[in-house]
Amino acid sequence: MALETSPDAPAAVRTIANGIASWINQLGAVWVEGQLTDVSIGRGTTTVFGTLRDTDADISLRFTCNRRVFEAVDPPVTDGSRVVVNAKPNFFARRGTLALAVNEIRHVGIGELLARIERLKQLLSAEGLFASYRKKALPFLPHTIGLICGRDSAAERDVLENAKRRWPAVAFRVEYASVQGPAAAGEVMTALRKLDADESVEVIVIARGGGSLEDLLPFSDEGLIRAVSQARTPVVSAIGHEPDSPLLDLVADLRASTPTDAAKRIVPDVREELDGVRLLRERGLRAITSWLERETHALAAIRSRPSLAAPVTDLQRRSDEVAALVERSRRTLTHRLDRASDDIAHRLASVRALSPKATLERGYSVLQLADGTAVREVAQVAAGDLLQARVSDGRFAVEVKTEENT
Q: Which DSSP string do the residues of 255-313 spell out, in sequence order?
């Protein structure tokens, strides 16, 4: 029943506290799953105190437990253990606090944990967070590497020592975070955001040594997986040993089997690179030497040819051929000119022999009428006609005295 109160008639604190306690104490026992933190056993008491934290949200409840119930769990539970407890809510009116009175504790089954991880894996895979096209390539030689690990951990030493042994000039920016327990996922996400915001950091390594499935649960946290997928800087997962495979391995841009393997994957070995450069120089020198020798032999073969070995001989032969052709042409032309000259002389003699002048030179003459017509018949003239007589060296006039036919 609600209390009737007013500013003039308020209820006492004890009344409200006792009312809350009376209502809560009527609740029955429930089974609750969570993660144990801040577990402590009071000296000289049989009561165990601690906090039961939600695995997916930042919510927790205090709990109390009989020491015999707590120590009866096999294997023993510690801070960070995932458990299922049977508890009854209790409100302590004197202190005004709520706590769960635990009367049974059980480990969360490994099979159940694996099933939950598998369901989360399928969900994130369906969203494409594990797709290969989302993977970013690592730089060949990063100048600054971000490292997220536990303080003074073996994983930190493995990464730093192996990386500097391979490339002494590499620089690290280390962000420490819990790598086990209820706060691990949140601290790793905070460190990841810090390193991702630093533009000088070219690759981020999240490293942790091996452990049980429960120890590695923070690295399958959904919030951490999404934070890694959204990072602009390439992320390398170096969690546990070779068989360990939290979901972080799937979303990371590169999965290293161990922290030592991560150091080998993110920086090249200076000795190997120097050996590679030396081998390439030797190969280049051999290639150039071989090419020069081949070209030298080719030039020597070309120079040994007669056209280059004794070019004057060939020119002299060609010169002799040209001289012979010129001489042959001259003889041919002279012969043809001589024949042409003889032919002209012969034709000239023939023309002269047929010329009327030659006939006149033999004592003949040509008689012409006054109009220049040659007299061929007696009938063309009459007595008393004046004719022109043409002889070899001139002409003169003649008069016809008589005409007579033969």
A: E-SSHHHHHHHHS--HHHHHHHHHHHHHHHHHHHHHHHHHHHHHHHHHHTSHHHHSHHH
CA 300/CA 260 separation, integer angstroms: 58
Asked if residue 149 lies in contact with residue 156, where contact means CB atoms within 8 angstroms, the answer is yes
* pLDDT per residue as tens digits for the range 261-277: 999 999 988 888 888 89
Give the 3-state secondary structure of residue 348. Answer: helix
User: What was the pLDDT predicted at 244?
Assistant: 58
As a whole number of angstroms, the distance between CA 204 and CA 252 comes to 10
Is the alpha carbon torsion for 329, 332, 338, 339 positive or negative? negative
Report residue 32: phi and psi, to 5°.
Answer: -130, 135
**For strand 235-239 and strand 203-208, is the pairing parallel, antiparallel, or unpaired?**
parallel
Residue 21: predicted pLDDT: 84
Q: Which residues of the chain fall below pLDDT 70? A: 1-2, 109-113, 241-244, 405-406
Residue 322 burial by Cβ neighbours in a 10 Å radius (0-12, 13-18, 19+): exposed
**Distance between CA atoms of 211 and 220, rounded to whole angstroms?**
14
Structural contact between residues 174 and 156, judged by C-beta atoms closer than 8 angstroms? yes
Q: Sheet with 366-368: list strands edge to edge.
A: 366-368, 386-391, 394-399
Parallel, antiparallel, or unpaired for β 144-149 and 366-368? unpaired
3-state secondary structure of 371: coil
* Percent of the chain surpassing pLDDT 70: 96
